[in-house]
Amino acid sequence: MVETLKSHHITLPIQGMSCASCSARIEKKVGGMTGVQQASVNFGAEMVAVEYDPEQTSSGQIMAAIENIGFEVPRIKTVFPVAGMTCASCVSRVEKKLRGLDGVWDAQVNLASEKATVEHLESRVGMRDFNIALEQIGYKVPPMAMAVGAAEDSAEQRQRQETRRLTRKFVFSAVVSGLIMLSGMQTFISLDPVLHNIWLLVLATPVQFWGGWQFYKGTWTGVKHGYTDMNTLIAVGTTVAYGYSAWVTCFPSALPSLAQGVYFDTSAMIITLVLMGRLLEARAKGRASDAIRKLIGLQPKTARVEREGLEVDLPVAQVVVGDTISVRPGEKIPVDG
After folding, report:
1. pLDDT, tens only, 34-64
2. 55: number of Cβ within 10 Å
3. Does 108 map to a domain?
4. Of all helices (H) and strands (E), which one includes residue 97?
5. Is a pLDDT exceeding 60 seen at residue 89?
6. CATH number at residue 117
7. Which of 56, 129, 161, 247 has the greatest number of CB atoms lying within 10 Å of its CB?
8. Which long-range contacts (CB under 8 A, 24 or more apart) does 198-206 make?
9. Higher-confidence residue: 100 or 271?
10. Of 157, 173, 170, whose CA–CA distance to 278 is shortest?
11. What's the CA gap between 89 and 93, in Å, rounded?
12. Which of 69, 7, 1, 4 is nearest to 41 (CA)?
């Protein structure tokens, strides 16, 4: 991770990018920070790689800069026991030490349960770093906790939640959009024009403001930070179509008869088709992530390490630089380097 005495490399996951211009904004923002030597965003992998001087900036400042322009740096929560705490001052010392680690966003310690909950970057800091830091101030993470490392909020869970959310919105929007399209055909429904428009307004409203809420949210984020993106285009286009149609429905006499057409089907179908695209994209990313996790899962969970002349089996997280690893014929190599 450390390339020179004054150069650190960090790779951060990013959520909220919708187009290539999002990548350019992140690169410009992070690359312009004091102490950052280089920033490169991979839009497909939703990652940013940053080289920076730790004496001038930190990973926390880089994450804050990314989130200040409307994107999210997902973090995981890891819960693990801490041995050796006896009083409230112990809690304060442990929290202060954990929060001082590079890549840790927040740390909370419960004295009654003797457990610490740490919100951190999975790619930057982990159980081995927590254990080393705590041992420096007289506390310890039990070996079993080092092996398991109970993560409550993983990237896999976030990916599944996002896919389920998009699926619900897409299915609902597709069904309602289909009803709106059918309702526009007199063969299927015959109502007074005013009642017909009210019926379409009732159908289109949840699609516009529930199904399309993420586009409004993305647009507002862009407005606050002075940029526009695909969310702006979708939000403005569908809002104009929906708003004009709602005006015609509520005040039909305010416009001439030739201008009293409604476009609820247009706004609903645009939102539905874009949701479908984002759902397909989320599923494709999920399959790619699953394949990577399966490859990572092939790594052995323990390593046979020589300590004080004896070979002992330790969790991979406890292996440190300088250890001698013993690998027998037919076994997998537990670590690289």
Report:
1. 889 889 988 877 888 888 888 888 777 888 8
2. 10
3. yes
4. helix 88-99
5. yes
6. 3.30.70.100
7. 129
8. 198/249, 200/245, 200/249, 200/262, 200/264, 200/265, 201/245, 201/246, 201/249, 201/264, 203/176, 203/179, 203/264, 203/268, 204/176, 204/180, 204/242, 204/245, 204/264, 204/265, 204/267, 204/268, 206/172, 206/176
9. 271
10. 170
11. 6
12. 69
Q: What is the DSSP string of 217-261?
A: HHHHHHHHHT---HHHHHHHHHHHHHHHHHHHHH-GGGS-GGG--
Whether 260 and 183 map to the same domain: the answer is yes
Q: Quick one: which of 183, 236, 179 has its CA closest to 207?
A: 179
Q: Is 9 helix (H, G, I), strand (E, B) or coil?
A: strand
Same domain flag for 87 and 129: yes
33 and 112 both lie in a single domain: no
Condensed to tens digits (0 to 9), the pLDDT of residues 188-232 reads 566 677 888 899 999 999 999 999 999 998 888 788 877 788 888
Cite the beta strand spans of 243-325 per DSSP E.
302-307, 310-315, 324-325
Whole-structure pTM value? 0.64
Q: Residue 150: its pLDDT value, please?
A: 45
Among 235, 252, 283, where does a domain finish?
Answer: 283
Domain around 211:
169-283
As beta bridge partners, residue 12 has 48
Q: Give the pLDDT confidence score for residue 151 in this predicted structure.
A: 47
